[in-house]
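> forwarded from #structure-qc
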């Protein structure tokens, strides 16, 4: 019985770290969807820093989303007999038609050394593409 209680307590604690706030129906919700084993973080809305890097939530209208994307460049893309290289990149995405109560998905990935991010609506329609704002070499966590 004690083992069951301990397991239940540990399981519930792990869920707290993954808890996401409930979307505000008066705002647009932007879910982050990194590609593969990478890391995508929400950094800013309209150049104002965010407290929570797991999602964006914005008022209806036009906004600029700032994000940080970390990914690994495969050894084949770096050079012969090379090791994989970690990239730490900043991207921005401008979109002028966010709707209240709508859900959006921001997908990110990389081609060789170049990162990319795209905004999709709930029907998987491509709405906008991000612009790379700079990348560093090896990322530190």
């Amino acid at each position: 019985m004690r083992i069951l209680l301990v397991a239940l307590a540990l399981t519930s604690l792990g869920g707290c770290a993954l808890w996401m706030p409930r979307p505000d129906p008066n705002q647009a919700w932007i879910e982050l969807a990194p590609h593969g084993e990478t890391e995508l973080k929400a950094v800013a809305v309209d150049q104002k820093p965010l407290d929570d890097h797991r999602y964006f939530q914005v008022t209806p209208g036009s906004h600029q989303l700032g994000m940080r994307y970390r990914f690994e460049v495969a050894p084949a893309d770096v050079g012969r007999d090379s090791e994989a290289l970690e990239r730490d990149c900043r991207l921005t995405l401008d979109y002028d038609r966010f709707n209240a109560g709508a859900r959006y998905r921001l997908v990110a990935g990389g081609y060789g050394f170049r990162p990319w991010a795209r905004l999709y609506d709930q029907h998987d329609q491509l709405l906008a593409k991000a612009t790379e704002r700079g990348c560093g070499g090896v990322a530190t966590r």
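QC bot note: The radius of gyration is 18 Å. The longest helix spans residues 2-18.
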